Structures are given as C-alpha cells and as structure tokens.
UniProtKB/TrEMBL annotation, chains A, B:
Organism: Pseudoteredinibacter isoporae
Protein name: 23S rRNA (Guanosine2251-2'-O)-methyltransferase
Domain RNA 2-O ribose methyltransferase substrate binding per the UniProt entry, residue ranges: 26-104
Signal peptide (UniProt feature, chain positions): none
InterPro entries xrefs: Alpha/beta_knot_MTases, Ribosomal_eL30-like_sf, rRNA_MeTrfase_TrmH, SpoU_MeTrfase, SpoU_subst-bd, tRNA_m1G_MTases_N
One cellular component term from this protein's GO annotations in UniProt: cytosol
Gene Ontology biological process terms in this record: methylation; RNA processing
Protein origin, superkingdom: Bacteria
CDD domains the UniProt entry points to: SpoU-like_rRNA-MTase (cd18095)
Amino acid sequence: MLFDVMNQNDSPEYLERKRFFDSLLTIFGRKPVLEALQDNSVDLHRLHLAKSNRNDGIVEEIIQLANARGAEIVYHDRQGLSRISKNAKQDQGVAADLICQAYGNYKDFLANPPRSNYQLLAVDSITNPQNLGMIIRSVCAGFVDGLIIPEKGCAKLDALVIKASTGTLFRTRILRCKQLHRCLEDFRQNDQHPADVYGLSSHANAQLKDVPSDTANIFVLGNETHGVSDVVSERCNKMLAIPMNNQVESLNVAVTASLIAFRGQI
Amino acid sequence: MLFDVMNQNDSPEYLERKRFFDSLLTIFGRKPVLEALQDNSVDLHRLHLAKSNRNDGIVEEIIQLANARGAEIVYHDRQGLSRISKNAKQDQGVAADLICQAYGNYKDFLANPPRSNYQLLAVDSITNPQNLGMIIRSVCAGFVDGLIIPEKGCAKLDALVIKASTGTLFRTRILRCKQLHRCLEDFRQNDQHPADVYGLSSHANAQLKDVPSDTANIFVLGNETHGVSDVVSERCNKMLAIPMNNQVESLNVAVTASLIAFRGQI
C-alpha cells in the first residue's frame, strides 16, 4: 500500500525498497512453508503465525527453521493472518514472505535484460495449478530467461503450484505484471530492448521453428481451453503453431512450454 | 487364453485372428465408453453390459451408438462383467472391446516397421495415469512411430489415462509387450531391423542430441521416482540426459517424452 501511494517517488532508496518488496513471494500452508524453508536456497524475510496455532511438530519445525535464518516472526489474530495469506481457508495459520532473488517486476528485467536476444515465456490465464507448476519447472530447467505471470487470471502461486513445480518456483525468474497485454505492449515498444511477441495457437500458419533465436522474443501461452485471449492476441506480432500429426488438435500447454524452453537444445 | 494354448500354430488364419485380438483394447466405465463411441474414428468390436444395469440416459446412449455401428452387445452377470473389465469397482456395469488399428503386439511392428530409422518411446513403470496419458498425447502428435507399453508395472489404460490423453489413445500406435526388457532385447537382436536402445536418466553424461536420427532408436522413460529399472538399464546401449539449468534435478516424464517426440521439429 505504502508503495502505491509513493508511486511518484523514484529516489534510489525508494526504488531499492520497492525492488525488495517486489521480490517477496508470500506462500501459506504448513507443509508448503515447511518444504520451502527446508530448501537452503530459499531466503525468508518474515514468518507469519496465527496466535491460535497449537505448536505441534510441524509448526515447531517451521519456527526452528525461521530462527536458524534469523528471520522475524510475527504473530497475528486469524483475521490479520488471513489478510496476509489472502486464503483463510487454506493457510492453516501459517504464512511466509520469501525473498526470491529471481522474482520481480518485469520493468526491472526490461531495463536490464541478461542478453540482447532474451527469450521469455508468458502465461495468459493458465488456471490449472498443475500446468502452471509444470511450466515453471520447464522454464527453470530450460533455456529461456524467465516467465511473465500477470497478477490476475492465472492460478495463484500456492501449494499446488509449488508442488507441481517440484520446488523450482523459488529459483525461476518470474516477471510479475498487472495486466499481460500492457506488459507485452511495453516490451514491444521499448526503445532499447524491444521484443517480438508471439502467441501460440494450433490454428496458426506460421511455425515455432521459423522464429529467429538471435532476436528478443516472448512466447505467450493461452488458457487451456480458450487459448490466447483476444486482448492479448492483438498485442502479438504473429501467432505460431507447433506441427502435429494424427489430427491431434492441441498439445498440453505445459508440453508446449517445454518445447519452447528447450528449443535448439535437443 | 485360446491363443496362448495355440501358440505353436502359425497358420495365416491363426495369425490374422491373433493380430485382430491383439488390436482389441478393453475399456470400462460409462463416461469413458460413451466418449470413446462418440469418436467416429473408434471402431467397436463388442459392447459388454451388466444385466443389472438400469437403462438410464447414458446406458441408452451407449447402446444406440453400439447399434449404429452394428456391434454385438453381450449381457453378463456382475461377475462375468468384472472378469472382462478386470475392474469391478470402476466398470459401472459397462465395458467395450475397441478395435484400435494402431494397437498391437510389438512383434508385428518389428517384422514390418514403417521406416528403417524408426523412432520409438517405451515406458518402464510409469504409474501416474496423468503422465501416461500426456505421454500418449505427445507420441500421437509428435514425430515418433509409437509407444511400447509393457503389460505389467504401468498405469492401466483406463478412464484417467484416456482423459489425460484427450482421446488420442485410440489413434496412437501402441506396441504391447509382456516384459519390457525382453521386448527391448528382441529389438536390439533383430536381424533385419535392429534398434539402439537408450534409457533416459538425469545423471547420464551422453546427451539426447548426440543420438543420430538416421538409425532406428528406442528411448526408454523410467518410473517417476526411481527412473529406469536395473533390469531394463542393462538392456540399454547407453543412458542419455537432457541438459538442464538452475540445478533442476529432473524434468517431468511427460515433458521428457515430448522433447523426444518433437526432436528436430521445433
């Protein structure tokens, strides 16, 4: 909230703090939080607990891991905790703000991409957490530079997604944006590091393998049933298909993601 | 059973009947059977119904579709039906023998492969039906010639697999075998159309992209947790890895399947 109000302020201190808070990923639920803290590569900013928790084995273990990291532990009433977890039904009285170095706003990436011919994936309304987790896993393992996830319309980065990502979520460069179509517009219009934007569609004539790999490219994966939305399609330079045999109509979206993430490497 | 006893008989009539029975895939459950019969490319040999079925809407619809195909309908007591479905708990009083032209014994394939440099996938103990269904979908859509599935150790080709395959199971060339290691041995030792056999393993030094595509190859995918079994590994010419970044330990097995199925096409 603070940062929305201060939006006009762009002092270096402000920007650095904003970048820090943008890198925080809040997860919830006893098992997901425990598993995240058991991963040594995961940094903890703050642990949030409901005062009403009975300190059973798993909560004790979480507290120990938080203490070992020297992280702040904050106690809340149930209502306060649910404001943080944004999921009172499933938080089980536990939430954690993780510091994910690779998690941030897309604008930071665009200002300073890791290479001129950066390759990104973007998801437009992927609602199945298993698919989103598998996409994250393939992006992390593969040869693309990150995954753009809009705040609305996609599965939340919750326990199911973390599990399907086999924990790779914490190491994957995730670029957050509010609305995907505006973010893609920013990438296309950028003066210094513009990208071409491609939507995947089984009905397209152009093919994935026709896209040059020496230019910056963003590949947009659409909803499991409806494909890429109209408002996003309008921002695409071109729609692309992957050739298929036996009259198969489409590939699983996570499979499509992996074919893009490993393009030229297999 | 009949055909096991007659195993020494190889008259042309016998072989033709054997090939026909090998091509039958028995599925069960009201919705899976209905959906299969709604697919015009699926041929029905026999519909099996429990005498105890109340003929509600969905059973009526199944009977109509069977009649439209001129297929035989056989009524059984519950026990008789469960001997056919092999799954009394989930058959819901309905089973169907489908004629899948692309479903058969691996020996027929080996005697007459569609090209000299045929490419096959094989599954060794894939137990998650979603993974098996996704693998089937990628094999069907991709650029390999079929999928070897052993009778034991893998998820059964049931409603969950059919759903995850999005119905492509009925169009995918499935090569059945009893024991995978013996089947792979047959492929390697074959005089006329021998294949090289590769097991996928994230610990391997050799890489998928080093495998030539102008030779006949079989790629074996191992269990989701334990990888390729020892008895199968011993039959592999070599183990192969797919290069991965960010210390990711492994890819989802269905993703690995699709990277192989689309090798050289993306």
